[in-house]
Structure formats: structure tokens, C-alpha cells
């Protein structure tokens, strides 16, 4: 049987009896110690289960017991999900809540504390695919212009570094983790190469073309960087010479998008979306874009066809002559 991590304090629940609260404590300990779930995920799972137990205690008019939870009916779960949806909870949050409840149910079954069969009878809520919001081409290029930050009280090499990073995100469609994971030896000098090897999700590597003007921006940054850049170390470093945090680039984009009058959707990842959307709008092949982005499935890349269709529809509505 799974033993709780001693440092985790027992959970107290007014809506459930002590036995069920103890099993919830054991479950969260298991997720933390054995499954290595992040603190934020643990917090979300605990909150979702607590909300469910509060709802059930009100729904039934009594405290929820371990035996009562194991005897849950599908109608009880549907009623809880309907209540959450009525509170304007999105499909992803509902899916996470259901995943947490199922995880707790499986834990109870493994521990010999009962089988919550109703949880497997509930279908996961459908999630509509939200289209990424690309940045217009002219604005995306301005993010890579160090002069846009000339009024800031920062060292010029910081401007050059951030401009080089954002030029790489837009010019090669990299994830921010991929760009900041590049070593100095991975990036050729201008005129000495036009591809970089990137390590993406799942530790998979892929070859990505890089524009000469982007390489020139990176070279301009390395030339003024006050820190020694080891060939085996990261090419983009922080103010003290350590690895550059993604949060620094996110904050830089927050400041710049305000100056450029862009919405909150203009994030580092939006530059990657823009790379794919602009390629597609200029006749780029979907399979080739899939390879460039490092998507495992073509269906992931196909979301960009929706963006392009929206753009074409806008052009049609504004430019087509009315009868």
C-alpha cells in the first residue's frame, strides 16, 4: 500500500468524514511522491476534489463518507459538472476536474477502499479548439528591433540579446524553451551556415533553417555580451551570466506590446504562431511547416489553416464588390 509523505499535513474537510479526508491526504501524497506531479497540479486536483465533496454534501444533505463516495452514481457526477459549467467554468477545467476525480477513484480501488464505477461512465467534456492569434508581420518584425527599447534604462547588450531571441522565435518558429536551450556551438556565424539543430519536446531533435539577418542579430549580441560564452554553454545568458529565464523574454514582450499597441495575446509563443501562419499564407506546404515546428502530428499543424481561412474571409468581406 502507498504510504503518505510525512511532511504533508492531514486535510480537514467539513463536508466529509475523517476517513475520506485521510484517504484524500494519502492520495495527494502518492501523486507528489510517486507520480511527481507539480505543486500547481496537486493544488488544482485537491481544489477540484474538495469542490466535488462540498457539492455532494449539499446535494445529499449529509457529510460524504468513504462508502458513500464509492457508491457515487453517474447522475451525481453529471450534476456536479453541470453546477461547475453554470459557474462559467471552461471545458479544459472541467476535463481536469474529471481527471482528478478519476485519479482519486483509481487510488481508492488500488488501496482496496472501494470502486467508483460511475466515474468511468462519464464522458469527458468536449473542448473547442481555440485558434492561436498571430501577430501582424510588420509588428512581429518590430519585436526584433533593438531600437524599439532605446528609451529603457537597460544595458544595450540586453536590448541586443532580447532582439536576437525574438527574431529567432519569429524567424525560425521556435518555442521559447528551444531558443533558450541553444548552445553557442549550435548557432553558426553569418555566412557560415543557414540551419540550426534544435532539441524540442520529448528530447527530439530537428533541423531548422535560420535567416542570415537573424544570425547577424545573434552575432551582434554575442559581440557586445559582457559575459564569456562557452561553446558548450547557453548562447543566451541573463544579466549575471547564467541561463536566461523565459520569464525575462515574456516581460520584455509585455513592455513592447504596450508600446506597439498590441493585445495581451502578443506573447513569445505568438511569434511562433505568426511564423507558421505567415508561411502558410504565402503558400507554404503544411507538411513542411509541420516539420519546421516539430509537431508530432499533422493535426496539430492543421490549426493554422483555420487562421488562414479567417484571414481570407476578412479579405473577402472587405474587398469583394457588393452587388
Properties at a glance:
14 helices; mainly alpha; elongated; 323 residues; disordered N terminus
E-strand count: 2
Strands ordered across the widest β-sheet: 1-2
SS-based structural class?
mainly alpha
Q: How large is the radius of gyration? A: 25 Å
| Mean pLDDT across all amino acids | 80
Helix content: 40-55%
Quick structural gist:
The chain is mostly helical. The protein has helices spanning 18-33, 39-60, 66-70, 74-86, 91-110, 137-143, 156-172, 176-180, 212-224, 246-260, 268-281, 286-293, 298-301, 303-319; strands at 195-199, 205-209. It has a two-stranded antiparallel ribbon.
Verbal overview:
The chain has 323 residues and is mostly helical. It contains 14 helices and two strands. It has a two-stranded antiparallel ribbon. β1 and β2 form a beta hairpin. α1 runs antiparallel to α2, α7 runs antiparallel to α9 and α7 packs across α11. It is elongated, with a radius of gyration of 25 Å. The N terminus is likely disordered.
Amino acid at each position: 500500500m502507498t504510504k503518505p509523505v510525512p511532511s504533508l499535513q492531514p486535510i480537514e474537510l467539513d463536508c466529509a468524514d475523517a476517513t475520506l479526508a485521510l484517504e484524500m491526504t494519502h492520495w495527494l501524497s502518492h501523486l507528489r511522491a510517486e507520480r511527481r506531479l507539480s505543486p500547481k497540479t496537486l493544488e488544482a486536483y485537491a481544489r477540484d476534489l474538495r469542490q466535488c465533496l462540498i457539492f455532494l454534501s449539499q446535494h445529499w444533505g449529509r457529510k460524504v463518507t468513504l462508502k458513500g463516495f464509492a457508491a457515487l452514481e453517474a447522475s451525481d457526477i453529471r450534476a456536479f459538472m453541470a453546477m461547475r459549467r453554470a459557474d462559467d467554468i471552461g471545458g479544459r477545467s472541467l476535463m481536469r476536474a474529471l481527471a482528478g476525480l478519476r485519479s482519486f477513484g483509481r487510488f481508492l480501488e488500488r488501496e482496496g477502499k472501494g470502486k467508483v464505477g460511475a466515474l468511468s461512465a462519464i464522458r469527458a467534456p468536449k473542448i473547442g479548439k481555440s485558434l492561436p492569434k498571430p501577430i501582424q508581420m510588420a509588428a512581429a518584425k518590430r519585436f526584433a528591433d533593438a531600437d524599439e527599447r532605446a528609451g529603457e534604462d537597460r544595458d544595450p547588450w540586453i536590448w541586443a540579446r532580447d532582439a536576437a531571441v525574438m527574431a529567432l522565435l519569429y524567424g525560425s518558429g521556435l518555442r521559447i524553451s528551444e531558443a533558450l536551450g541553444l548552445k553557442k556551438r549550435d548557432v553558426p556565424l553569418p555566412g557560415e551556415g543557414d540551419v540550426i539543430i534544435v532539441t524540442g519536446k520529448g528530447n527530439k531533435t530537428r533541423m531548422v533553417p535560420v535567416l542570415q539577418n537573424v544570425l547577424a542579430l545573434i552575432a551582434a549580441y554575442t559581440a557586445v555580451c559582457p559575459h564569456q560564452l562557452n561553446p558548450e554553454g547557453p548562447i543566451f545568458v541573463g544579466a549575471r551570466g547564467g541561463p536566461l529565464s523565459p520569464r525575462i523574454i515574456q516581460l520584455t514582450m509585455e513592455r513592447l506590446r504596450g508600446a506597439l499597441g498590441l493585445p495581451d495575446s502578443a506573447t513569445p509563443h505568438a511569434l511562433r504562431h505568426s511564423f507558421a501562419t505567415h508561411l502558410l499564407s504565402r503558400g507554404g506546404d503544411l507538411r513542411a511547416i509541420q516539420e519546421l515546428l516539430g509537431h508530432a502530428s499533422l493535426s496539430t499543424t492543421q490549426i493554422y489553416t483555420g487562421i488562414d481561412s479567417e484571414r481570407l474571409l476578412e479579405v473577402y468581406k472587405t474587398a469583394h464588390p457588393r452587388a
